[in-house]
Amino acid sequence: MKKYILTLILIPLFFGCSNTNIIENGVFKKWEKCKVGSGCIIDIAEITNFQWDTMCFYSGSYSLDEINRDLGFKLKEYTDIGDRLIFLNKGKLVYQEEWFTNPSEHSKEVVFNDKRRKFRLSKCHVKFRIKRRHRIYTLIGI
Asked: Which of 45, 3, 53, 6 is closest to 22 using CA atoms?
């Protein structure tokens, strides 16, 4: 009986977490496949496993109210201090990913090198050059 209950708990956790950090993990994997000196280009459209037509970026300086006004609907999941990518399909939320830059941690991080605090791109314009310095993977629009 205990094994049955444990299985019922672990299966949803495993499958529920399988769709998290798609972009961040995709950047790390793409970097590992790139040849040194050849330049590393990632097309976000190629690493997503869901239907979408628009990618929105909001820096951690954007409030929930500002994001909701910009999107035209209310986000259900929101943490106040993180940068976030929001993917839309026909104006509806299909996926979001957020991350927190913490210089005191030693884990890998993805950052966007863009002076804009927010941007919105169509699926055909989501190619970025990846540059890595230590544990920081910087995405630069091309």
From this structure: 45
